Amino acid sequence: MTPQRITDIGPPHYEKFLHPVIKHNYGHWLYHETLAPGVLCHVAESGERIYTVRAGSPRLLSVSTIRRFADLADKYSGGYLRFTSRHNIEFLLDDASNIEPLKRALSEAGFPVGGTNNSISNVVHTQGWIHCHSAATDASGIVKALMDELYPYFTCKKNMPDQGGACSSLPGSLPAKLRVAVACCVNMCGAVHCSDIAILGIHRKPPQIRHDALRKGCEIPTLIASCPTGAIRPAVVDGKRTVDVAEEQCMYCSNCFTVCAAMQMNDPENDGLSIWVGGKVSNARSEPKFSKLAIPFLPNNPPRWPEVVSAVANIVDVYARHARRFERLGEWTERVGWPRFFELTGIPFTRYHIDDFRYAGLSFARSTHMRLRP
Fold it and tell me: How many other CB atoms are there within 10 angstroms of residue 269's CB atom?
């Protein structure tokens, strides 16, 4: 018999880290229910129960914070915890008596419990200024300022008179789950193309070329090849080889800056943010959707980004008041029509909302039929 190969290539198998109740009942679950905001109970065919307590995390975690989470898991959930794809932390418990003590401990440590069912989950975001070289804005700073405003929608304590008061009937204070994402540039490593509300950092000027630095530290063929639109061309300046940028072809993606630091993209006066709405990954009730432009530009005003926070909070509040139960934001806008969306939110419609991409016409309403507003 050939011995099993031992290797350190790739991650260990996930079964090694499953809670015993989950492993024992894998694929044999009857139902789940919401016990409180941020607290779920899954019931298996065997009758066993597993409880989940979800809390928000700041995503960028210090070693001391991770150790605090580990200590809480050791004390209340037998050491079992996991992070969701949107940076929530979930503790997996088989003893219901530990739920309330764990919630109190998380609250005292500053981590809110919530984000389940029809609520705002933790905001997924990119690196921003803390790490990314091509960022047009910060990421974690915007998320902090935004969730300070939207915190009641995470903990399900937002007073919604048309939907039964302060979350009196679970699963939440919103018509459906709401996914928010932030990406600090158009490379969009933060899932902003398919979230209900997305904040996208944008550059508005082509790279400023530092020719002396380019000749000393960059490979011109590699730099030219890095541009997805072919906007970078070879050139001669002061009798020396360098490059030039065709501004009308530049899409401000910062790919060139990735391979050559002399192609400076950051611009404190012209960089800013845009707001996109209506995306979703789920195929429940309707097909997955890409986000669509709502606000083409907002200024970059750290450390609290008041214009961005106000704009997103306004969209969330309008959606919460007008959408039907279980209707995602994109489904609501398609039902009422985009003109009605702009009317209700008070967002001005501009020429920048008209997609001039060469294939955009394939998605336009091109028939002569008129659609009446509901």
Answer: 9
Give the domain-ending residue among 40, 74, 109.
Answer: 109
Per-residue pLDDT of the chain (374 residues; tens, 9 = 90+): 566 766 677 788 888 899 999 999 999 999 999 999 999 999 999 999 999 999 999 888 999 999 999 999 999 999 999 999 888 999 999 999 999 999 999 999 999 999 998 999 999 998 888 888 889 999 999 999 999 999 999 998 764 444 433 343 444 479 999 999 999 988 877 678 889 999 999 999 999 999 999 999 999 999 999 999 999 999 999 999 999 999 999 999 889 998 999 999 988 889 999 999 999 998 888 899 889 999 999 999 999 999 999 999 999 999 999 999 999 999 999 999 999 999 999 999 998 888 776 666 666 655 565 555 54
Residue 307's CATH number: 3.30.413.10
Beta strands in the chain (DSSP E): 29-36, 39-44, 49-55, 81-83, 89-93, 124-125, 180-183, 197-202, 208-209, 232-237, 240-245, 263-264, 272-277, 292-299
Residue 130 lies in a domain: yes
Rounded distance between C-alpha atoms, residue 345 and residue 294, angstroms: 10
Residue 3 lies in a domain: no
Give the structural domain span for 160.
Answer: 124-203+269-363
Contact 48, 25 (CB under 8 A): yes
In CATH, what number is assigned to the domain containing residue 257?
3.30.70.20
Residues 149 and 278 in one domain: yes
Is residue 190 domain-shared with residue 288, that is, in the same domain? yes
Is the residue at 352 inside a domain? yes
DSSP 165-194: BTT-STT-SSSS-B-EEEESSTT-TT-GGG
Among 109, 140, 158, residue at a domain's last position: 109
Q: Total domain count for the chain? A: 3
For residue 315, being part of any structural domain is answered with yes
Q: Please measure the distance between the N-terminal and C-terminal CA atoms of the chain and give it in whole angstroms.
A: 70
- What is the residue whose two structure tokens read 């789920």? 282
